[in-house]
Amino acid sequence: MSIEDETGAARVTVKYVVTRQPAFSSEIAQIPDADRKGLTMARTPGTGPQRIVVLGAGYAGVLAALRLAGKAGDRARVTLVDPRGVLVERIRLHQLAAGQDIAPVPLAHLLRDRPIHFALDRAAALDLDRGRVMLGAPGAEPLPFDWLVNATGSTFAAGVPGVEEHAHRLTGPDAALRLRAALEDVPEGATVTVCGGGLTGIELATELAAPHRRVRMLTGGPLGPGLSEQGRAHVAGVLARGGEVVEHAPVARIERGWIELADGSVLPSDVTVWAGGFTGANPLAREAGLAVDASGRMLVDASLRSRSHPNVFGAGDAALAPGLNGGVKLRMACATALPMAAHASDNVLAALDGREAKPMRHRYYVQCISLGRGDGLVQRVDALDAPLPKVHTGRPAARFKELICRSTLWSLALERRMPGALTYPKGPHAPYPSEEPTARSRKVPIA
Q1: Smallest Cα–Cα separation from 63: which of 128, 431, 71?
Q2: Phi and psi at residue 328, in whole multiples of 5°?
Q3: β-strands 298-299, 271-274: how paired?
Q4: 151 lies in the same domain as 165
Q5: What is the pLDDT of residues 375-398, one digit of tens each?
């Protein structure tokens, strides 16, 4: 059937693929991690193309679908599942909330001319033993798969009592527009409180700063814990111009019109926004029996393969590789999601050919933060994302951040035209338990 996407500008053909049952059993899925080194799961030759399902059409999911469809050819049939017809540019949601017009990006445009079956639906459950994705629409046929790429992303953790009922969270465009409407309704001189001192909170607080309202930022620890002293000082100065920063003030409870801190003090707040930490966006992984961490993120090894189910890979915020890069957690960001999607896709493709999956090595160069439209911060970091003293600020940094934001769409467009084109900076060799690093490859840095 054909369904018009959210913009009304294009039509997306939604195909529910119902073919054979997968060739993976619960016995294979339970192979211990230590025994899975080099395991390949290619279907017996002559039984038809492999069925690959990608869950989530964010930055990681779209890139994975494009790369898989473009490089696999007749060896595989790729299906992308997502309940939206547009790509959510999460890195611009704070701009949308602040009143700027952000043009939607139809998935039909991003996926055009590629043999990708798009299911405009919600993945409601996973049947890992039988290899099926259960869809949310009434009467929808399950999607069978031989390989699954989990790219369902992340969301803000609820955190403290009252967040769900009395605080805004930038979980998507609809949430950003609700915050935008709330800001338009408050009187001049109103106080807007942003709870959370990480990069998301910083970008939102600086974007919302305006002469007719006061913005307060509450942080449970130090402001910008991943920044250098110079970086924190610049951010603090920008925030001070539009309001105040209260550091080491953990929130205990949020109510309508006020916030209670852990020390018992109460602060008035006309509009409260929660930006305190991320968790797995979708309970699918945990409910299906995939190995996950306490927050619900799927645990993967250095090849980005599930630690519990070898025909499942993860990419982006939905996946966590505890031992990658010397044990340093990869940042939940576009700078990580796109390389993870490329690497996970390449390992699925390797499995189609009976080749061994390669461990991922990733490094960082900078963290880019927008501080309103006229200021920014480019924080230099080492390979493992630790801040270095050098920073760039002001309008040049703002322009650089905007360039990085635009480059995410450019990367997807390039991958559509030239499958396999996206490469990423490789970090130092850091063996994962029971695995050895593999050969180096090209370096085309993306921030």
Answers
A1: 71
A2: -85, 125
A3: unpaired
A4: no
A5: 999 999 998 899 999 999 999 999
